[in-house]
Design goal:
The complex is a heterodimer of chains A (468) and B (121).
Chain A: E1 2-4, H1 8-20, E2 26-28, H2 31-40, E3 46-49, H3 57-66, E4 75-79, H4 84-92, E5 97-100, H5 104-116, E6 124-126, H6 134-156, H7 164-178, E7 181-188, E8 193-198, H8 205-212, E9 222-225, E10 239-245, E11 248-257, H9 265-275, H10 277-294, H11 304-320, E12 325-332, H12 335-342, H13 344-361, E13 368-372, E14 375-381, H14 385-401, E15 404-405, E16 410-411, E17 415-421, H15 428-444, E18 450-452, H16 458-462
Parallel strand pairs in A: 1-2, 1-3, 3-4, 4-5, 8-9, 17-18
Antiparallel strand pairs in A: 7-8, 7-11, 10-11, 12-14, 12-17, 13-14, 15-16
Chain B: E1 2-7, H1 11-21, E2 25-30, H2 33-42, E3 46-51, H3 60-68, E4 77-82, H4 87-96, E5 100-103, H5 108-119
Parallel strand pairs in B: 1-2, 1-3, 3-4, 4-5
Classes of the chains: A alpha/beta (468), B alpha/beta (121).
């Protein structure tokens, strides 16, 4: 047993009492000498004070844990007080036990337990002869531990990214500062996603990354191509790590090191893979939440709230660039009859197929939404009244042609539609209101048709001041 | 008398090791890993190898790994004697089955104590 205690008196007392217990004690007042002794002839146990001048017991303990010769030597740290923080810090440093000074019985018990677990290797290190100083080595180990904890904290801080794309972009920006690599890829399940960072010249990166991660799904990938990645075409084999989150795996991370990468790259990659799990989960949840809040689950279109939010932005944009914006509001004809005649499941099917039809018929920018009940609304960007009529008639024709297959029979239906084109300074609600009135006019006019809103407000039309 | 193989490309270091260990051992010498490997495999009386790392032809770590490969030659103790103190190399040597790591320049009495401990058990 090596005993390190700076106080001569207490060291002598301790050494005597432990010798009486049957331990062979090598005592020293100097922590560095104690470390040297431990490395060059690994003991069954080392006892040190938690607080010592020059090298603390915690530092000494971290050194012994980190060095191959003493990785398994149990360390018992002693402190003046039984405070939880000292105990916590001693245990985090890898100490076998934290014992309060003066409690000899507890110390003896701990010693008996620690020395009972026999270790094999007998490997030793003599560092003192050369330029390698114990303090240098401690500094290096502490620095490495600090480096790891800074890396972990920086990766965890990415949890504020609300999307997978943004998270991967920032993650690759960060990681390329720390590791020199040819490409970096992440794949996740639930949802299925694949992201890749490579140099613009790294043309083989995608195939190599997909092979390394065994990714064969036909999905659009998130790609970041910039010169933060290294442009070597060949290099060491890719490192592949699981991304564990609690007991489940979120996916995998693969990184192809460059020839300039450090030898400990694999350790670092597994550290960041562990730490990026939380941010990945967070981004997935945020995305899911966003979807739930803005999407109508039956038709998979935007919901009313999301549509209105988008309208505010779009109106502003159209005004700035002096582009026209038209709104189509449509309502399924005799929907109540479908519901009553074939049941609510049939009604739901009609609405879902309407959602699909609008998706199919429109340009990506045309933003269809479910307005409520059997009403749908579309915003046609950069489209004036004439252009909107073309779109509206096309949609009405497609609805007429649509066949919805119910268990009992195949049904057809029609829709009525109102069109309003934004007037200067008009609010989203006012435009939709005009389109709504036009749609009612279409209903009154016999359904299955389009009506164009008056330029004036519906209120003015109703007051009779303007002839409808 | 126990036989000790000293593998180092520097004749000066080989002589320092001989002096440190004194007259109680018989010595065999080699100046690189390849020569060391062939000598130690050819001579079953060698009980201990003192091994440098940075040498021409074959490094000490490579010689160690080949010599101990698959748990072979467990009875022959190997101690690395080198200017290196790099953590990953020390770990590699320990994993390969070396018994110790001594950083040059070494202290004669420490080396002889370590060797005595190993050879005499």
């Amino acid at each position: 047993v090596i005993l390190v205690d700076v106080n001569d008196e207490s060291r002598d007392v301790m050494a005597r009492r432990l010798t009486a217990q049957g331990y062979r004690i090598d005592a020293t007042a100097d922590p560095a000498a104690g470390a040297d002794m431990a490395l060059s002839s690994p003991p069954d146990l080392l006892i040190a004070d938690l607080w010592m001048p020059s090298i603390s017991g915690v530092q000494l303990c971290r050194l012994l844990r980190a060095e191959p010769a003493t990785a398994e030597v149990p360390v018992v740290l002693r402190g003046k007080h039984d405070d939880p923080r000292s105990r916590f810090w001693a245990e985090r440093a890898g100490a076998a036990a934290y014992v309060v000074k003066g409690r000899m019985a507890e110390l003896v018990r701990v010693l008996a337990r620690a020395s009972a677990s026999k270790r094999d290797s007998g490997f030793f290190m003599q560092l003192s002869g050369g330029s390698v100083d114990i303090r240098d080595r401690i500094a290096r180990h502490l620095d490495a531990a600090l480096f790891d904890s800074v890396i972990a904290a920086e990766v965890r801080a990415l949890a504020s990214c609300a999307s997978f794309e943004r998270l991967f972009d920032l993650f690759s920006q960060f990681l390329s500062q720390v590791i020199s690599y040819r490409w970096l890829a992440i794949t996740t399940t639930m949802p299925d996603q694949f992201a890749l960072h490579h140099h613009p010249h790294g043309l083989s990166a995608e195939a190599a990354a997909k092979a390394a991660l065994r990714f064969d799904k036909d999905l659009p990938i998130v790609r970041v191509a910039d010169e933060d990645a290294c442009d070597e075409q060949d290099g060491p084999e890719p490192i592949v790590c699981d991304i564990p989150f609690g007991a489940v795996s979120l996916g995998q991370l693969a990184l192809a090191p460059s020839t300039k990468s450090e030898p400990d790259t694999a350790t670092l990659v597994s550290l960041v893979a562990r730490e990026v799990a939380g941010p990945l989960r967070m981004a997935a949840l945020m995305h899911e939440l966003q979807q739930l809040a803005t999407t109508d689950s039956l038709t998979k279109l935007m919901n009313r709230r999301a549509f209105l939010e988008m309208m505010v932005v779009e109106l502003e944009r159209c005004r700035r660039y002096e582009m026209p914006l038209s709104i189509l509001l449509l309502d399924v004809d005799h929907f109540k009859a479908i519901n009553d005649g074939y049941g609510h499941a049939a009604g739901d099917k009609v609405l879902a197929e309407m959602g699909e039809l609008l998706h199919r018929q429109l340009r990506v920018t045309d933003s269809p939404a479910r307005w409520g009940g059997e009403e749908f609304v579309l915003a046609l960007k950069n489209t004036d009244g004439v252009g909107a009529i073309v779109v509206a008639e096309r949609i009405l024709a497609a609805i007429r042609a649509l066949e919805v297959e119910l268990p009992e029979k195949t049904i057809h239906f029609t829709a009525s539609m109102g069109l309003a084109t934004a007037l200067p300074g008009e609010s989203a609600n006012a435009i939709i209101d005009r389109a709504d009135h036009a749609m009612y006019a279409a209903k009154i006019g016999g359904r299955n048709r389009l009506r164009i809103a008056e330029r004036e407000t519906p209120a003015a039309v109703e007051n009779g001041t303007v002839h409808a | 008398m126990k036989k000790v193989l000293i593998v180092d490309d520097s004749p000066v270091v080989r002589q320092q090791v001989r002096q440190a260990l004194g007259e109680s051992y018989e010595f065999v010498e080699a100046s690189d890993g390849a020569e060391g490997l062939s000598k130690v495999t050819a001579d079953p009386d060698i009980a201990m190898v003192i091994l440098d790392i940075n040498m021409p032809r074959m490094s000490g770590l490579e010689m160690l790994e080949r010599f101990k490969e698959g748990g072979k030659n467990a009875g022959v103790h190997v101690v690395m004697l080198t200017g290196e103190g790099q953590h990953s190399m020390i770990e590699r040597a320990k994993k390969a089955g070396a018994k110790g790591w001594i950083v040059k320049p070494f202290k004669a009495e420490m080396l002889s104590a370590a060797v005595r401990r190993l050879v005499l058990g």
